[in-house]
Amino acid sequence: MLRVKLIVNPAAGAGRTRKKWPQIVERLKSIGLRFEHDFTEAPRHAVELAKEAVRQGYETVVSVGGDGTINEVVNGLYESGTLEDVSLGIISTGTGSDYIRTVGIPRHHQEACQRLLNPGKVLVDIGEVEYRSNGQTEKRLFVNFAGLGFDAEVVQATTQRFKILGGLPAYLLGLLTTFLCYRNREITLKVDGEVVSKKVCTAVMSNGKYGGGSMFVAPDADLTDGYFDVLTIDDISKPDLLWSLPRIYKGTHLTHHKVTMQRGQEIEIESAKRLLVQADGELLGETPARFRVIPSALNVLV
Question: Cβ atoms within 10 A of the Cβ of 266, count?
């Protein structure tokens, strides 16, 4: 019998994880899964709990929460130095649940619990981003996507100004306020050594297909191909951006003349003006930023 540790973020999904937790426990016990669990108490706590789980010899660590919880757990497993020896399980109770849509894990927590009893396993890529924060160079892993510009400004507004609202209301208000205030920026973009300078609205490095709460950002992304799908929306006008926004949810935005999609393993982005950087929906810092794929790095139970 494998040793299983659940890392539970009760605040995920605007507090819905806390309400669902008794049902999850009941379901896991009913299917005969032997497990222990820890609750997160603050941001970055899941990183430390994941490292401790590895030290205690757990072979499977399960993230119970949203995409941000997955991100922290994976960073903890990576920092433990034994990422290849531990499998990641996911019970998604967050708001967006973008990552599991690409991986193929059920959205409903009852079905996700059932999968843990006799799961399959897929070896997937992860991303690493190097960025500036408080004058220092920092690094962080991400599992799903990272972005800068308009994308990161929305994250800042959603998480810092409207977080108390939770879920879709917070995101929509964050999107609206960013839309009203944001100005496109000049950047230098290097994709696997190929350099271009241009004015952009946003740039997104996608490992998974979905981001930003069910946006079909990178329809052709593959978690196992060793590449990012690099989306840039060039110097688009605000009316055009507003009119085109629904296309991103359908995945039809790639035909827009202001949209460019490339594939790359190493991406560098610089900007003369301050440009924020986010990863998996968490605001990290600002440019200059460097992104690289770490291929076949994470075992995910599906």
Answer: 14
- Pairing, β 87-92 against β 60-65: parallel
**CA 240 to chain CA centroid, nearest Å:** 27
- Mean pLDDT estimate for the chain: 94
What are the start and end residues of each CATH 3.40.50.10330 domain in the chain? Answer: 4-119
pLDDT tens figures, 78-122: 999 888 889 999 999 987 789 999 999 999 999 999 999 999 999
pLDDT value for 94: 85
Q: What pLDDT digit, counting tens, does each position of 223-279 carry?
A: 999 999 999 999 999 999 989 989 999 999 999 999 999 999 999 999 999 999 999
Distances (CA, A) of 201 to 74, 133, 152, 204: 29, 22, 11, 10
**pTM, whole model, 2 decimals?**
0.93
Task: Output the CA angle 287-145-151, nearest 5 degrees.
Answer: 55
The torsion of the CA quartet 208, 211, 215, 216, rounded to 10 degrees, works out to -10
For strands 60-65 and 185-191, give the pairing. Answer: unpaired
Could you tell me the two tokens for 20?
């669902």
- Say how far apart CA 98 and CA 95 lie, in whole Å: 9
Phi, psi of 169 (to 5 degrees): -60, -40
Residues in contact with 38: Cβ distance below 8 Å, sequence separation at least 6, in sequence order: 5, 6, 7, 8, 49, 52, 53
185 near 275, Cβ under 8 Å?
yes
CATH number of the domain at 127-296, please? 2.60.200.40
Intervals of CATH 2.60.200.40 along the chain: 127-296
Q: CA 211 to CA 215: how far, in whole Å?
A: 5
Encoded tokens for 76 = 């903890």
Coil, strand, or helix at residue 154?
A: helix
CATH of span 4-119: 3.40.50.10330
